Amino acid sequence: MLGQIPQAVINLDALRHNLACVRTAAPRSRVMAVIKANGYGHGLLRVATALRDADALAVARVGEGVQLRDAGSRMRIVVLEGCFDERELVEAVGRNLDLVFHQPDQLRLLQLVRVPHAPRCWLKVDSGMHRLGFDLDAAADAYAALAHAAPGERQPGLMTHLANADDLADPYTREQLASFGPLAKRLGAAVSISNSAGVLGWPEAHGDWVRPGLMLYGASPFAGGRAAGHGLRPVMTLRSRLIAVNRYRQGDRIGYGGTYVCPEAMPVGVVAVGYGDGYPRHARSGTPVLIAGRRAALVGRVSMDMISVDLRGLPGARVGDPVVLWGEGLPIEEIAEWADTIPYQLTCGITPRVAVVEAASGAVASWEGGG
After folding, report:
1. Is 256 a known active-site residue?
2. Domain, as residue range, for 253
């Protein structure tokens, strides 16, 4: 038996292995490991501790950086969205957090609020993502204003984000790089461009710093890709167990709405996992699961607490058999495709009632809640 179910098993050895893969792929760049959104659902503090060999950590919001400092982290921490009011600015500076500036209001805030020392800063430039950042035409002036507002020995860095790097055939990435490159050269600043797709697919975008996220957690950033193809290992394995084995007649309908009709007399299993745990509500019939290491297929709609599975190919299936929903032996990218979503949403969507088990160096320890 697996104990409390479902469980999200977090393999920290795999996380460290994936960090090493980043360094192999971008050997001349420093690594800013992205651990926002509770470490992509793997546990913010757990992930930060495991990634202590990264050159810096990146979070989305000041509160995440504060949480890391309160837990004792002394690593360089970059707040990708920067701060938005005086309280956040004072707290960020007091906790020695790097701040990214992406709009004029943030620059004005830094100019108006008295802080004990100048923070380490980055300017975000919009090279084509069209989400956050200063327009290319305004970026040089904004950079000068930032350097003036935060004087010191640390020259501000320059950051941009790639919109379509996950599509290696799309020329837009090269267009972004061609637009951003002259500005970076003129300013002579350290640059950070690459996300996971940039790290793996666009070596010309590596720059001084890379910002891997998804690949650290063992998933491919490319449509149709698989982590194993890049030498990556899954960090999270979501698992549960079979709690019922039933036999139904031809024509019987399974689950809410009766969307699956048994094509013949057949055994159907019930697994203790559902959208209340973070399993994707829109996973279609046919979505694979592993039961005692062998593949079976989801049938019918996903319920809050349970899914049903076709056991015709598993005559030996029994109540209590372990079930893997994604992770070790079952690529998370495949499950995301069946559910018309992305791996990010699956790992970030694990709910607090799922038991988290940390597996590292052969040791397994229980963690309560979502970590």
Report:
1. yes
2. 236-367
